[in-house]
Amino acid sequence: MIDATAPTAATFRPALWTRGDWNALFGFGTNILVNLLVMTGLLRFVLKMPDDLVFGRIVPAAGLMMALSTSYYAWLAWRLAKKTGRTDVCALPSGISVPHMFVVVFVIMLPIALKTGDPVMGWEAGLTWVFVQSFVLMAGGFVAPWVRRVTPRAALLGTLAGVSIAYISMRPAEEMFMTPLIGIVCFAIILASWFGGVRYWRGIPAGLVAIGVGTAIAWLSTAMGHPMGGMSFGNVTAAFGNFGLAVPLPAVNHVFSGFQFLGVILVTAIPFGIYDLVEAMDNVESAAAAGDSFPTTRVLTADGVVSLVGCMMGNPFINAVYIGHPGWKAMGGRLGYSVATGLVVLVLAWCGIIALISSLIPVVAISPILLYIGMLIGAQAFQETPRAHAPAIVLALTPHLAGWGKLLIDNALGAAGTSAAAVGLDKLAQVGVLYPGLAIMGGGAILAGLVLGAIATFVIDGALKRAAAFALAGALLTFFGFMHGEAIGVGQSPWVAFAYLVVAGWLLACVKVAPAGRSDAHAVPVAVAHGAAD
Hints:
The protein is mainly alpha-helical. The protein is built from 24 helices and 2 strands.
């Protein structure tokens, strides 16, 4: 019997706020806050930019970009909820791309600032970098759905798990154990609630409890003369000097001033634009695995548009859909957490409150939240794919581990005023550090992980022709430097490219001798296997 009172697609109105949105707001909000604190630290202490530029131009523009982004993705989730009649749809998280934050600072802005002696020129080069990437994203959005349909879920989620383990989980975990009384205690508070279901007094969100406890420990230790977490009363006093309304102003002339460095910018802007495409596809796939299928083209186009608006207003950092949708959804996040986070960021960025917060809250109290998200995404790769594909996921992780290892080596040697080449590759090899292998394997890690994961998945399924197709794609991408290399160009890593070509030929030759019942004709269609819907 049909219930005449049941809501239809035409009458259903998704709830704009639920109880779980509080948890997601504090969790996602603190994630964004950490990124903003890191961003301002890089601008002030690495690039030596003056506070009036950081807090008067860049931070307000970044706040505007994130408010636009979070509002759009909440609207996209509202449409999906209304279309399906579901009450559990969760908006995609988004904000400043953290990997790109470091890339644009250390690869573009810092070298140019040092060469010219003017940090403003470094800022202008960063704006132009985002300008170029924005158009790569908008154009690539129309190709991404096809890529997502032909790529197995194990490859998409596997390379995403590599990002989450190497670049999201490890640094927070290290910070926690460097200041264990704050980090480990805060992690236990989060773990008990978000994994164990423990409810705190009057339903206070676990993220807020963790930050409150961590901040209390840090300031108590400071008052006792044994400071933890880098807290200082002098820093708090100085932070009040940045109070005041600062709205973003057009920076179009600065964007086009940066075009004088276009040759340097294109070397990284194009490959990292492609990185953005793949990362966004991975994150959309992650959301689909959690039950929320969003249109890939609209997601990527939106990233490009809001990034373009942000750079035109003075923000030199790209916008991206974040890893972590399943985590915020598991906390109970729906639509409201996304909009609320954007509005909170807008207030913090426009009123000069970021500097005060950075002086009051120890970053180590926030780090456990990032570790939680990394744990959840790493686990999802195994939980949301067929058990037989687990080896392919592990393979997809390895380029990210190589890239992370190389980054640590480079940073350590750089701090000592030397480099791998100066130390000698043979000497490094004698102590077990195969530096060239790390550099080649970790170059373009997100694409390398995707290609390797796809080849392994299709081989496991007996779809050897499809595996050969991805090996051929790997040969082309490697030859032109998009993976297994550090620069775009012709003939990059030629022997690696030739190896992929040989693999493609070998897999095609094996089709004739493959076991009965394990051929492309018997393989499950990829779009069905990973539930792609665009």
